[in-house]
Design brief:
The protein has 214 residues and is of the alpha/beta class. It has seven helices and eight strands; from the N terminus they run βαβαβαβαβββαβαα. Helix 4 packs parallel to helix 5. The longest helix has 18 residues.
Length: 214
């Protein structure tokens, strides 16, 4: 199936898991720093509301004994900057993708949404899962890279810093799955009608080969 091309996209802003456990809790976001990225999430929400774009807030929940996002815990609650802002729809989930086991797709279809702009956490987990899931269902996707974030991992496969994880995922997004841009550019685009740049796997690869050969 070909990618959707929207001259006048019908957007919804999808705010994924901006919860207290990511703000210095047991899954503290490191890159970009949470204190900076959450400001951009709030900015995107305000801009969406001003432009008449519907806002969907997603919340991850886990069993009461879980180390993060445990039901009823402070860490599972929405960050105050998100909780106090207007939203048009609210979704609770238990899996990485915001579409799995929820009514998100049905709600987007019912509201004639063809493009989702994704913000929130984590870039490499719930954002990644939601973005890819959305593309497979035919939605166009935008990803605000400074309104999201990652943390470092070390396991039997190796080590990756938060910066590496976030950077690599955004490069992969831009090659096929989403238009990647900064929050300020997204907000400006809402005002001017300018569509964000999209790319392809082949073009991204050819640029890399040319760069390596230089």
């Amino acid at each position: 199936m070909s990618d959707p091309v929207n001259t006048t996209p019908r957007r919804a802003l999808i705010v994924i898991d901006v919860q207290n456990d990511y703000d210095g809790g047991n899954l503290a976001i490191q890159h970009p720093p949470f204190r900076d990225s959450v400001v951009n999430v709030a900015r995107a929400m305000d801009a969406a509301a001003a432009a008449g774009i519907k806002v969907v807030v997603i919340k991850q929940l886990a069993p009461e004994t879980a180390p993060v996002f445990a039901k009823g815990s402070h860490g599972a609650e929405l960050h105050p900057e998100i909780a106090r802002r207007k939203r048009d729809h609210y979704v609770e989930k238990t899996m990485p993708s915001a579409f799995t086991g929820t009514d998100l797709e049905a709600w987007l279809r019912a509201n004639a949404i063809d493009t989702i702009a994704v913000v929130g956490y984590m870039t490499h987990n719930c954002d990644l899962s939601t973005v890819i899931h959305a593309v497979h269902m035919g939605f166009a996707v935008e990803f605000l890279s400074d309104a999201s974030g990652s943390l470092p991992y070390a396991n039997s496969a190796g080590y990756a810093s938060a910066e590496e994880i976030h950077r690599v995922i955004t490069v992969i997004f831009q090659s096929r799955f989403a238009a990647v841009l900064k929050t300020a550019d997204w907000v400006d685009g809402l005002k001017t009608g300018t569509l964000p740049e999209r790319d392809t796997i082949v073009a991204s690869n050819q640029r890399a080969l040319a760069r390596n050969a230089a």
